[in-house]
Amino acid sequence: MHEKIQKFCYNMQRIYIKRGKIMKRDRQAVIKQMISRDKIGTQEEIKQRLEAEGITVTQATLSRDLREIGLLKLRDEEGRLYYSLSEHVLPSLDPTVKDYVKSVSRAQFMLVLHTELGEADVLANLIDSDGNPEILGTVAGADTLLVICKDAVVAEKLESEFY
């Protein structure tokens, strides 16, 4: 029975991908695999490879995905540009976290998040339970949360994810 369920799930996933519909995190995982496996120099090449795997994506969506993944453009020995995974690739935040945030301010490697009264400690617990190694700690008040990040690059990336 377990084998039948596995096979059904696999087939449904393949059908879903064949129709060009795929979850954002799954699409981004495919992009990360491509980038880590091959030297790809253009967004158009990434788009073509995705389409070859049955994943249809618009240019705007692809650009957004690449920005969220945090890709870098590097040069190889011959001077050609190619995409590379950033050393600061962060795990995605739990979508629930964003529901609590009213505003975000950044000061170098720290973020100040504002929430409704009484929600900052709940948000701190959610962030802490995520186990992101790029977040060194959180300090919560009644409606304000201080998030201390590993460095300014991480803080900038998280700022855009929080709000």
UniProtKB/TrEMBL annotation:
Gene name linked to the record: argR
Task: Give a short account of what the protein does.
Answer: Regulates arginine biosynthesis genes.
Describe the location of the Arginine repressor DNA-binding domain by residue ranges. 23-87
This protein's pathway:
Amino-acid biosynthesis; L-arginine biosynthesis [regulation]
SUPFAM superfamilies from the UniProt entry:
C-terminal domain of arginine repressor, Winged helix' DNA-binding domain
Segment forming the signal sequence: none
Give all residue intervals belonging to the Arginine repressor C-terminal domain.
Answer: 98-162
**Provenance organism:** Streptococcus salivarius K12
Question: Which protein is depicted?
Answer: Arginine repressor
Cellular component, GO, one term: cytoplasm
Which InterPro entries does UniProt cross-reference here?
Answer: Arg_repress (IPR001669), Arg_repress_C (IPR020899), Arg_repress_C_sf (IPR036251), Arg_repress_DNA-bd (IPR020900), WH-like_DNA-bd_sf (IPR036388), WH_DNA-bd_sf (IPR036390)
**Which GO annotations describe the biological process of this protein?**
L-arginine biosynthetic process; protein complex oligomerization; regulation of arginine biosynthetic process
